[in-house]
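From the shared-data thread, chain only:
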Amino acid sequence: MKTVDFGSVAEEYLKYRDDIPESLLEGLEKRGVEISGSKVVDLGAGPGLLSKMLSNRGAIVDAVEPSEKLIETGRKFVGDDPRIKFRQKYAEDTGLKADTYDIVTVMRAWHWFDTEEVLKEIKRILKPEGYLIVMDSGFTSGVKIVKKSLKIIKDNASDKQLKRAGAKEDATQMINSFPVEWFDEWKYSRFDLQELYKMDYEVKFTNEEWLGRLATVSWLAAFKEKKRKRTLGEIDEYIRENFSKDTHKIPHVLSIAILENRNKKK
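Structure, as C-alpha cells:
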C-alpha cells in the first residue's frame, strides 16, 4: 500500500483542511457519545484539527501522529491547551495504557493504517463498551471547478490515474465512502456498528484557499515539490480564466461510523 508524507504539506494541511463542521460533535452527542469529560485517543491526528474540537467540547485528548512536522504544526495550533497531548507514535503501536480510553477517533486516516494491527491496539487501549468512531470527509466532484481541478491533477499524474487513497484502492465496493471490507474487519474484531450516517455540507473557498486545499490531497501531496507547484499553477490559470468570482462553494460529505467495543477485559 502506497503511503503519503503529509508532513511535506503540514502548514497547508492545517490552514486549508480546517473544514470539519461543528455539527459533527453535536451529532455524536445526540447519538449517545459523551464527549465532555471523556478520555479520547485521536489516531492519525495530523495537526490536531479534530483534537482541538474535542478538547473545546471538554474531552481529554491524546493526539497520536507519526509525522514530526505535523506535530510541530499542531503544537503551535493548539497552543497551551492542557487537555491535548501530542504523541509521535503510529496508530498500530501507541504506547498508551491499556483499558484507559472511553473513545478512539479516526478522521481521514483509517485507510492508511494496517487495520489488523490497529484493531489489536484499539482493543488494548479502549475500555469495554467504549466507542471507536471512524470518519472520513472530503469534497465531492459535483461542480465544475472540482471536476476540472481533478482532471488537471490526473493529466499530471505519472500513470494518468487518480486512484483511491491507501487501502481504499483495493476496495470492491464502497458504503458511505468506507470500503465494504472494513465492516467485516470491525465485526470480526468485535466492534459492533451502532450508527452509520453521513452529512452533506458546503465549504467556501477563495481561489487561494482552493489551491491550498488541493495541495493537501493525497495525489498532489505525493508529487515532488516542483511537479506539485507546476500542477497547481495550471489549476490557478484555469480558475482565473474561467471564473469571475473569487469565492466558490464546494460541496463536501462527511461519513461517520460509530462502533462499540464488545471485547471483554482479559
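The CA atoms of residues 204 and 249 lie 5 Å apart.
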